[in-house]
Write a structure and sequence with these properties.
The complex is a heterodimer of chains A (about 120) and B (about 800). Chain A is α/β, with parallel strands linked by helices and about 120 residues long. Chain A has a single domain, classed as 3-Layer(aba) Sandwich (Rossmann fold). Chain A is about 45% helix and about 20% strand. In chain A, strands 2-1-3-4-5 form a five-stranded parallel sheet, with helices on both faces. Chain B has about 800 residues and is α/β, with parallel strands linked by helices. Chain B has six domains: about 120 residues, 3-Layer(aba) Sandwich (Rossmann fold); about 100 residues, Four Helix Bundle (Hemerythrin (Met), subunit A); about 120 residues, Rossmann fold, CATH 3.40.50; about 130 residues, Rossmann fold; about 150 residues, Reverse transcriptase/Diguanylate cyclase domain (Alpha-Beta Plaits, 2-Layer Sandwich); about 120 residues, 3-Layer(aba) Sandwich (Rossmann fold), CATH 3.40.50. In chain B, about 45% of the residues lie in helices and about 15% in strands. Chain B has a six-stranded mixed sheet with strand order 16-18-19-17-22-23, with helices on both faces. In chain B, helix 14 links the parallel strand 11 and strand 12. In chain B, helix 1 packs across helix 4, helix 5 runs antiparallel to helix 6 and helix 20 crosses helix 21. Chain B is flat, with a radius of gyration of 33 Å. Chains A and B meet through helix 1 of A and helix 5 and helix 6 of B.
Chain lengths: ~120, ~800
């Protein structure tokens, strides 16, 4: 079924590859935001089905953005998946402890990004 | 069909993936698009250009055609224009190309439908899309590599500062996160290693240098090579580049982008980084044109290579280009046969336009045939029969669209079928014959019968020949070829002036207009010279008209020898010639014409009675921009300068704005020379080139006129002899410098050959250059041009 995904990512290259991937392989509607604050705003207004959130962003980073999304009543229910190029176990455990719905290591494979999201969120393809 | 033009390979793959199953045709040149539109084959066209001006040209070309299809034009570089100036069926977008935006444009125009991605193979279109995205972000990736590399070097040298350290860590981090997604997996670990290195503040360990350098090298190689292109799953009608190639000589990035652009147009490009590689390519490849970086290989090497190519392959057009800031002696380039000057930075598409124009010119024009037959199979058959001939076939199946197609195709020959449902071919033939513009076009009629009454009817309708169906290949080809030769001959005599062998005015105006448009679009210099023979009445009166005619031919021959294919030489009236010089500045043009004058001076016309007549002309030069934007304006201005040249004593070339020497006029050049013979020679050579001059014959008078608090002569250049009576040249030079005149006045010293001390002293004292005696006028004029260049 068709989904709406919000991608919050400061790097335009990653943003566009991820968007192309989800649009073309799954036909999902993709919303994008280049920073944490914009992402929060779009999430509030457009209520996506899930959010892909980059960890390392200038200004408001992924951890902080996640805190705001979870803390606000109108976005607290939206599942959030973190994207990170860090692979150390300590980091991953820290993210999991924050209560994110999943973690996708970068670089991701654009051919399977949609499948990965399905798997993490328990969506049936 | 949707025609697309101007796309890079990755972009067309992405677009194709998006638009499938619409049929796409990749075109290479605008005229193919015009032809396809005229033939009614195009439902919509997508064209990608670099500048808005090119878009405007294209709209002007396509929009007036009957049944002009919706046109989506994408302008890559900058600029915004209001959509309101466009015809309603044209949509312009700006910025970085994306398949998405063009697709959106087509949807808006009602030509494409938004497609659920699963109707095509999503994997294939994603691959194409990701590959296209790489093209967009490649520069960003390379920049990240650069940042890291600089930091690695600084780290090894012990000069790494905090900011560069952090920037490298961040750049490496971004590469770790991105490269794999673009399909460059192999170096993610290398990027990660570099990221870790710059996350820590540890000092460099001895063993680390090798590891870091290796990782750095692999990373750069992989990023510069980029991901492998996706396998094209959808066939695109694009022929593999093969056959003759363009040779691009020059080692830098610009040469590579030209080669890429050539590939987009289905042309093969061979690159050569230096003269040695170029020689190999010249020997081994079949070439149609050469693009030569004139500054590559050091001082003068480019010019030498140009001369070498022109001697070895005389017919091969060589387009010369250079960096904007480098000095190029355009006159030297033209003398060696270079066909054009391009200055970087310049969009690759424009460079290719120029190259293709150069190729077109050297190629015999294909014969354009319009075939009107309601049976498309006949067109297919003809196409196959004429495939190897030098024929460009346009097929029209709907005779009701005959006139609009005729105007668009402008055929050299018409093939008409007799039996067509709506209009019969003979009817069409009669109408064509009565048309003022098209009445002269040869017509071949295809008939189903050879009955004598039918054949008679065919000729009565005004056809030149007929071919009976079923068409036999060899017969048709022979008849078309026969007609073609006549057309070519007629075309030649129409365009060429019988007496002098140069172009007639009308034809030259069309050509000049084409070059003007190109020059305006590219911001290339463009000069127009108008010439009038001197003293023709006297020659005719003294020796008779046959000698007058020979004098005209003599001048025309010298002009033809001096100017190459890039220039347009034509006879405009009884004793008037026009020369248009694409890529030439005011100075360049003036010098080249002056050289023709000098050549005429040394080669007088020999008379039957053993006498001689020296033939000369006067000329005025105007340039695009300051003197006007159209041929009419340039002609007018050049004519005024020509008048001034006549008034100033004939046998000279004057630029516009140059005032004949009179009273307090500004002086270009002061000649300080006591040797009378040499002084005469110099003054004459300079006057021929339209420079205003003054002569000072000894040291004291030179010092008085040129130096002191209030000099009476303030030239832009002084030609200063070292050995002068009274006061030597070096002293005069030193005073000029002392008085602060050296800012506005450059000095070229005339020194004795091999007097190294003199030369060193002169340059040391502030001379711009020197020329050794005995003076070669050619060498001296080159220095003069350079001294006055800016």
């Amino acid at each position: 079924m068709s989904r709406r995904i919000l991608i919050i990512e400061d790097e335009p290259d990653i943003r566009e590859v991820a968007a192309a991937s989800l649009e073309l392989t799954r036909g999902w509607e993709v919303l994008t935001a280049p920073s944490g604050p914009t992402g929060v705003q779009r999430a509030r207004l457009e209520q996506p089905d899930a959010i892909l959130l980059d960890v390392m962003m200038p200004g408001m980073d992924g951890t902080e953005t996640f805190g705001i999304l979870r803390g606000a009543e109108d976005t607290t229910g939206i599942p959030v998946i973190l994207m990170t190029a860090k692979v150390q176990r300590a980091e991953r455990e820290r993210f999991a402890a924050m209560g994110v719905d999943g973690l996708i290591p970068k670089p991701f494979d654009p051919m399977t990004l949609g499948d990965e999201i399905d798997r993490l969120l328990g969506w049936s393809a | 069909m949707i025609a697309i033009d101007g796309l890079r390979e990755s972009e067309s793959a992405a677009l194709q993936a998006r638009l499938s199953p619409l049929r796409l045709k990749l075109l290479r040149v605008p005229h193919e698009l015009v032809g396809a539109v005229a033939a009614g084959e195009v439902e919509a066209a997508v064209v990608v250009v670099h500048r808005l001006a090119a878009a405007a040209d294209l709209i002007a070309l396509i929009a007036p055609l009957p049944h002009a299809p919706p046109l989506a034009i994408h302008v890559r570089d900058g600029g915004r224009a209001t959509q309101s100036v466009c015809p309603p069926n044209v949509r312009i977008t700006f910025g970085t190309f994306s398949a998405e935006s063009v697709h959106a444009g087509l949807i808006e125009a009602g030509l494409a439908v938004p497609q659920p991605p699963d109707t095509t193979d999503p994997g294939a279109s994603l691959q194409a899309d990701v590959f296209a995205l790489w093209g967009k972000f490649r520069a960003t990736m390379v920049e990240r590599v650069d940042v890291i590399e600089r930091a690695v070097v600084a780290l090894m040298e012990g000069s790494l500062d905090g900011a560069s350290h952090d920037a490298a860590a961040s750049a490496a981090h971004k590469l770790v996160g991105a490269l794999g997604s673009f399909g460059i997996d192999s170096v993610t670990e290398d990027a990660r290693l570099l990221e870790h290195r710059f996350e820590s503040d540890q000092p460099l360990e001895p063993g680390e240098i090798g590891t870091l350098s290796d990782a750095m090298m692999r990373l750069r190689e992989a990023v510069e090579a980029g991901p492998p292109p996706p396998e094209s799953r959808i066939p695109v009608e694009q022929t593999e580049p093969s056959g003759p190639a363009i040779l691009v000589i020059g080692a830098d990035e610009a040469a590579r982008s030209i080669a890429d652009e050539a590939a987009v147009r289905g042309l093969r490009a061979v690159r050569a980084a230096n003269a040695a590689e170029a020689r190999v390519a010249l020997d081994e490849s079949e070439l149609v044109a050469v693009l030569l970086d004139i500054n590559s290989g050091g001082e003068g090497a480019g010019l030498d290579l140009l001369a070498e190519i022109k001697v070895g392959s005389p017919g091969l057009p060589v387009v010369v280009w250079s960096d904007q800031h480098a000095f190029v002696d355009r006159v030297e380039v033209a003398r060696r046969g270079g066909e054009g000057f391009l200055e970087r930075p310049l969009a690759p598409t424009l460079v290719l336009d120029v190259l293709q124009t150069a190729v077109e010119r050297t190629r015999r024009h294909a014969l354009r045939v319009l075939s009107v037959d309601d049976d498309p199979l006949v067109h297919a058959l003809l196409d196959r029969m004429l495939h190897d001939e030098d024929v460009e076939l346009h097929g029209l199946t709907d005779p009701t669209r005959f006139w609009e197609t005729l105007e668009a195709v402008e055929p050299d020959l018409l093939l008409l079928d007799v039996d067509m449902p709506a209009i019969d071919g003979l009817e069409l033939c009669r109408v064509v014959r009565n048309d003022l513009r098209w009445g002269g076009v040869p017509v071949l009629v295809l008939t189903g019968s050879t009955r004598s009454d039918i054949v008679e009817e065919v000729f009565r309708a005004g056809a030149d020949d007929y071919v009976a169906k079923p068409v036999r290949g060899p017969e048709l080809v022979a008849r078309i070829r026969n007609r073609a030769e006549r057309v070519r001959f007629a075309r030649h005599t129409e365009e060429i002036d019988e007496l002098t062998g140069v172009l007639r005015r009308q034809r030259s105006e069309r050509l000049i207009d084409d070059y003007l448009r190109l020059a305006r679009r590219q911001g290339t210099p463009f000069a127009f010279a108008f010439l009038d023979m001197d003293g023709m009445k006297a020659i005719n009166d003294a020796h008779g008209y046959p000698v007058g005619d020979r004098a005209l031919r003599h001048v025309a021959n010298k002009l033809r020898e001096a100017f190459r294919s890039e220039d347009v030489v034509s006879r405009w009236g009884g004793e008037e010639f026009a020369v248009a010089m694409y890529g030439m500045t005011r100075d360049d043009a003036t010098h080249r014409l002056a050289e023709v004058l000098e050549e005429l001076g040394s080669d007088p016309l020999e008379l039957e009675d053993g006498g001689e007549v020296t033939v000369t002309f006067s000329a005025g030069v105007a340039v695009l921009g300051p003197d006007g934007d159209t041929l009419v304006e340039l002609h007018q201005t050049a004519d005024q300068a020509l008048y001034a040249a006549k008034a100033a004593g004939r046998a000279r070339v004057l630029r516009t704005g140059a005032v004949p020497p009179a009273g307090e006029a500004t002086i270009d050049i002061a000649v300080v020379e006591d040797d009378e013979a040499l002084a005469d020679l110099l003054m004459h050579a300079l006057a021929t080139r339209g420079y205003t001059t003054t002569l000072l014959s000894d040291g004291p008078s030179a010092a008085e006129a040129l130096t002191g608090p209030n000099p009476s002569v303030r030239p832009r250049l002084v030609l200063l002899d070292v050995n002068l009576p009274g006061l030597d040249g070096l002293t005069v030079l030193r005073r000029l410098v002392r008085d602060g005149r050296a800012e506005d006045t450059r000095v070229i010293m005339l020194t004795a050959r091999a007097a190294d001390d003199e030369i060193v002293a002169a340059l040391d004292a502030g001379a711009f250059g020197h020329v050794a005696k005995p003076v070669s006028i050619g060498v001296l004029m080159q220095r003069v041009r350079r001294a006055l260049a800016d």
